[in-house]
Amino acid sequence: MYTKFSQNFNNLPLWQQVIKKDVRFEVKELIDNAGKVTSRQYDAVISGIRHEFKSWREWYSWSDDVIVEQLVKDLANEQIEKLSDLQWVFRRSEGITDIDMLRKKIVGALKKNESKIKQSVNKETVMKLFPEDKLIDDTNCIEKLIYNIDKPENFDKIFKIFEQ
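Given the sequence above, the corresponding structure tokens read:
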């Protein structure tokens, strides 16, 4: 049915790409989070990439907590070896208008919750995700994590906004 597109798969609409890949929905995974086993449910795993879908009308008072709780589990997930193994997709809305606004909200949530993040994320995790940053050590790994996520070239690997 899609043979004429087989040479240029990336030009297919997303729904057509999805049906050609290994897709699982509502996937629950157990994650060793600093010695404590927790669970994380992804909305979809498509060809090994974990997807979290958000359809928020605005950035709510509880949004920071959701971001930190879920993202910390994602970062601790040993299956996520690089940033592109994880995709958070937000629907564009009145409260989530563009990628720069989303980056400010997410980075702000991470900065406000550094102590929570320190309980779950270690130097090895940060070094695995940002191997190009040779200055990561035990004393600065959380600051370096946030700093590197804030870089647009890194942020854009994880977070996307789509229009309906």
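The longest strand covers residues 23-33. Try to locate this feature in the token string yourself.
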